[in-house]
């Protein structure tokens, strides 16, 4: 009797990332990915996929700032050299940066969770 190694089911990375960006379970695309603003669910309510071992850690915050920096910094520099008063420039730049982070961070974290799930990476402990 020969033992056959079973191959795990295919996990398309692009689809899993897109589902994560939309705050959906990377496995089925129907269940919610977060219980709150950034807290991921332990298991999908729709398909039962165990997502508790997936940890995105610092990657989403790093990528969010990396994506927002090239947009906010040139805009702030343009406004600074255009003669806009600093009393307007600093609060406006801070508001745009905070709004961008608040809107982008959960989507980036969902994408990270989707990518980690598709690659089959599990956290060891904690």
Automatic annotation (TrEMBL):
Domain of life where this protein originates: Bacteria
Transmembrane intervals: 62-81, 87-105
Sorted UniProt keywords: Membrane, Transmembrane, Transmembrane helix
Phylogenetic lineage: Bacteria, Pseudomonadati, Pseudomonadota, Alphaproteobacteria, Maricaulales
Organism name: Marinicauda pacifica
Pfam families associated with the record: DUF983
Protein name: DUF983 domain-containing protein
